[in-house]
Design a protein that fits this description.
Blueprint (H helix, E strand, L loop, with lengths): L2 E8 L6 E3 L4 E5 L6 E2 L10 E6 L2 E6 L6 E3 L2 E2 L4 E3 L4 E4 L3 E8 L1 H4 L16 E6 L2 E7 L14 E6 L4 H13 L3 E6 L1
Parallel strand pairs: 3-4, 14-15
Antiparallel strand pairs: 1-2, 1-11, 3-5, 5-6, 6-9, 7-8, 7-10, 10-11, 12-13
């Protein structure tokens, strides 16, 4: 049986793979989505991919910047096939791929849980100074060396510069980062 997946071709985390293992997958910027696409062009709840008789269908969920299938703005649900390009606004492009079960098993699943950091602190930026608020992960949960983290950052629009600086460092380290902005 063929296994569908999405590969980030343009946008955050190029070459990141999202396996489509279930019947319905919601994509968007909000962390409640099955697949989180952290990009300014992505709406909080941007699109839905649903299992169909022939594979999968993609449907825009009323996104602000639109969903595009092979360069054309979508107005309803459409069937997707291998090689199709799904655009979220103008800055994110996902390629639809189909692989055999054995090859799909070698990649990570969308349902994989994020790893925990040994000493992770939620920080509030007040007047340019970061202040620890709370230890959000029990100290006994360690990270395997070399393991990439999935990090969520919530911030106010006025703190964008500080967040951009932190994000650049974390991305250089290979971590996946998601945002929510007030």
């Amino acid at each position: 049986m063929a296994q569908y997946r999405l590969v980030v071709k343009r946008g955050p985390n190029p070459n990141q793979i999202f396996e489509l293992n279930g019947d319905v997958h919601n994509l968007g910027r909000d962390i409640t989505n099955d697949i989180v696409i952290n990009d300014r062009e992505a709406s909080r709840h941007h699109l839905r991919i649903s299992h169909s008789v022939n594979g999968y269908m993609v449907e825009d969920l009323g996104s602000t910047n639109g969903t595009f299938l092979n360069g054309k703005r979508m107005t309803g649900a459409e069937e997707i096939k291998p090689g199709d390009m799904i655009g979220l606004g103008e800055t994110v492009t996902l390629e639809v791929q189909v692989v055999s079960d054995s090859k799909a098993a070698q990649t990570s699943s969308v349902n994989e849980k994020p790893v925990a950091a040994t000493e992770m602190f939620q920080e509030t930026i007040i007047g340019g100074n970061a202040q620890p608020v709370a230890n959000v992960v029990p100290p006994h949960q360690a990270v395997t060396p070399g393991k990439k983290l999935q990090i969520f950052i919530s911030y106010r629009k006025t703190n964008r510069k500080q967040v951009d600086d932190i994000t650049r460092v974390l991305k250089d380290m290979g971590h996946s980062i998601w945002f929510d902005q007030d």
